Amino acid sequence: MKKIIIGLSSLLLLLSLTLSVSAAGSAKMSLKSSKSELARGDKFTITVSLKNDQPVSNGGVVLSYDSAAFQLLGGECKVKNATLGEVSASRNGGVFVMAEDTVVSGTIFTISMQVKEDAPFGEFSISGNPSLNVECPISGTKVTVVCPHDFSTGTEIDEDEHEAG
Predict the structure, then answer these.
(1) Are 145 and 160 in contact (CB under 8 A)?
(2) pTM higher than 0.90 for the full model?
């Protein structure tokens, strides 16, 4: 009887490991900006989402972004029964913790950011490095910092300065 119980326990353990690996392969995380074109001083939101119903207990995402162009303002957890730890520039992202494993599909948390007043113009990538109890790839997002003025009748002095016409 002991051998049967040990055999069944081993089989169940092996099966659970197999299911975890196959579920992890189907998880997908993404970052999405609330705006694709931004002017200096604009605030925007990065939404961190997980797809394909994954059981998650804790984790985090460290954002990679150009700190000369953007500053991190804060964050908000969007998963029921979860809390979001401090979101700060020193951490570049958010860490969330749930009281128990929760199946997640959709927005985990949002991060508020702002374009700095002296940000350079151009296209920027914002990417992330996830740390979850399930492995998954993460896709980033792109935003463009644009000059909001119409200088069609003026002269461009350089990338940052224009002279009205």
Answers:
(1) no
(2) no
